């Protein structure tokens, strides 16, 4: 297929075979108690890789049990998780399709429940979350250093397990996202206040991973550029933060938005028209103007020609999708062989299934 979408691109020194990314997707298929990789996940990732997706990003893996967000979520919180994670990375690489796989590493912050994380949830500041109905505990400075350590250790484990890189989850109101948001970060010390202080924790994590994993192990980020809250993160600040992260060694960025309490989250339902596709791309395109690293466009992209236009016009470098691959993991292979029909994904969000993600649209 002769198209910009099938031109290789580099993330740092890592070559991707095409411009398609499977955006991080929690699959509810891990062991619930400890977050060990489950057999159904190996099958899922093998299918995604056979579908020739350039970069596959796993569902969010918690770096510490206090950051568990959801039932049956994968974990990277201790060394005993490495063999299972290694089987997952191997399931992708063994297909020989050329797909690469990154582990998304995350901490839920205040967007969890004590029953899941087995303690009072933590956050930069004690700001009540009306959705989880949690009043989190403010992290001490010593604990912030511990969080940085957990993320760096998680990246080391991912590298040991054979992943090609890691993605930091700094979107959707989870812990790193709640640090950069002025709505949830009300601190007055070095970790709060202006955008430089609010994003310090992420720069520390990036440089910690760089020092311990080396330049051949890319660190990328999924980051909010809006929280959809009146006192939340602004695009102007997100641009400054993104540039500072690039200077700290970040190697690609995926732009998202929303927070649980905003009502408007990151997974918008009911998309039908082509004009609705790429709902976070305008934010990504603005951020791309100030960066040199590759930028991923996200949000409801379903149509080949829309994807091609977004890349050929220079708005973004990569096309990131989640729900279309739940519906059809071989979508990109189809595109490559000239079958260019729009993804049949209806964005109905019935794929969120605590017994394991699946495409099961509601009958109307
Ligand atoms: C079932 C499901 C699980 C998701 N899990 C994650 C996740 O673990 N981490 C994350 O950053 N985003 C997660 N997302 C959000 C997607 O990565 C993506 O940002 C969003 O669905 C918009 O893209 P789409 O319209 O192509 O689905 C999830 C989405 C779905 C539908």
What are the distinct ligands in this entry? flavin mononucleotide
Instruction: Return the structural class.
Output: alpha/beta
Report the sheet-strand fraction.
Answer: 5-15%
Query: Regions with pLDDT < 50 over 5+ consecutive residues?
Result: none
Radius of gyration: 19 Å
Question: How many strand units?
Answer: 12
Q: Please, what is the average pLDDT?
A: 97
Largest sheet, spatial ordering of strands: 3-4-5-8-9-10-11-12
> How far is it from the N-terminal to the C-terminal residue, by CA?
36 Å
What this model shows, in words?
Helix content is 31%, strand content 14%. It has 12 helices and 12 strands. The chain has helices at residues 39-50, 82-93, 114-117, 141-160, 175-180, 195-198, 200-213, 235-247, 281-288, 304-312, 323-327, 331-336; strands at residues 9-11, 14-16, 20-22, 55-62, 100-106, 122-123, 137-138, 165-170, 219-224, 252-256, 295-297, 318-321. The longest helix is centred in the middle third of the chain and has 20 residues, at 141-160. The two termini are 36 Å apart. Bound molecules: flavin mononucleotide. Flavin mononucleotide binds next to strand 4 and helix 11.
Write a concise keyword list for the protein shown above.
TIM Barrel; binds flavin mononucleotide; single chain; 12 strands; alpha/beta; 364 residues; eight-stranded parallel β-barrel
What is the topological layout?
Layout: E1 9-11, E2 14-16, E3 20-22, H1 39-50, E4 55-62, H2 82-93, E5 100-106, H3 114-117, E6 122-123, E7 137-138, H4 141-160, E8 165-170, H5 175-180, H6 195-198, H7 200-213, E9 219-224, H8 235-247, E10 252-256, H9 281-288, E11 295-297, H10 304-312, E12 318-321, H11 323-327, H12 331-336
Parallel strand pairs: 3-4, 3-12, 4-5, 5-8, 6-7, 8-9, 9-10, 10-11, 11-12
Antiparallel strand pairs: 1-2
Bound molecules: flavin mononucleotide.
Flavin mononucleotide (FMN) is lined by residues 23-26, 59-60, 104, 169, 171, 222, 256, 266-267, 298-301, 321-324, 351-352, 357.
